[in-house]
Write a structure and sequence with these properties.
CATH topology: Aminopeptidase
Strand content: 25-35%
Number of strands: 7
Distance between the termini: 19 Å
CATH superfamily: Gcn5-related N-acetyltransferase (GNAT)
Number of domains: 1
Order of helices and strands: EHHEEEHEHEE
Bound molecules: coenzyme A
Mean pLDDT: 91
Oligomer: single chain
């Protein structure tokens, strides 16, 4: 797991290309290739190959996840969770109290994004806003967030999150 560099961009786009159930044609061929040139991020690398990625930007006072993906062959091994830890760690470094993103709402029956929501909820995210949109591909968007609290905060003295454990 390391910071994404320009050399990783082709690998990131390759993963996005392999996930058409989550990333539509516009995202795969336009949005993601452009956004990764402007967003920071982290990649998970195995045998020199990018197997997972997350991109980040700051907006509305939160560290926002732009794009997140793990290659299908590498799912369920904790890579997504590890990427999220790095995101939370980065939020703390930046002095930001929340990590956030948005995804397809649960009023839309589309199993791939049901998995995505489960992943985020399982990892401590909660819905803070629901928006109806006129985008046929995403008629309901949920905005989700997770608070990240620095180790010194008394409210989290019993937290077991690895990032909050002392060295
Ligand atoms: C969502 C995604 C990044 C998860 O990556 P992953 O490496 O498979 O996830 P992990 O193995 O780290 O799982 C972390 C936790 O989430 C849970 N989880 C992951 N996928 C899940 C699913 N489909 N259903 C239920 N729980 C799930 C795991 O059980 C694990 O929980 P645990 O630690 O309590 O066991 C990956 O499935 C993916 O790339 N999805 C497609 C793209 C996408 O949805 N991107 C986000 C929207 S842009």
């Amino acid at each position: 797991m390391r910071e994404m560099t320009q050399n990783d961009h082709a690998g990131v786009v390759q993963i996005a290309e392999s996930l058409p159930e989550w990333f539509d044609e516009t995202a795969r061929s336009h949005s993601i290739p452009i956004d990764i040139q402007h967003q920071r991020g982290f990649v998970a690398v195995q045998d020199g190959m990018v197997v997972g990625f997350v991109t980040l930007y700051v907006a509305e006072g939160r560290l926002q996840i732009g794009w997140l993906g793990v290659g299908k062959a590498f799912r369920g091994k904790g890579i997504g969770k590890a990427l999220l830890y790095r995101v939370e760690e980065r939020a703390l470094e930046l002095g930001l109290a929340e990590v956030a993103t948005y995804t397809l709402g649960d009023s839309v029956d589309y199993p791939p994004y049901e998995q995505t929501r489960l992943f985020y909820f399982r990892n401590g995210f909660e819905v803070y806003q629901r928006n109806q949109t006129d985008n046929p591909g995403c008629p309901e968007e949920i905005r989700i967030r997770k608070r990240v609290v620095p180790p010194s905060a008394p409210a989290n003295k019993d937290a077991t999150h690895p990032l909050l454990e002392p060295d």
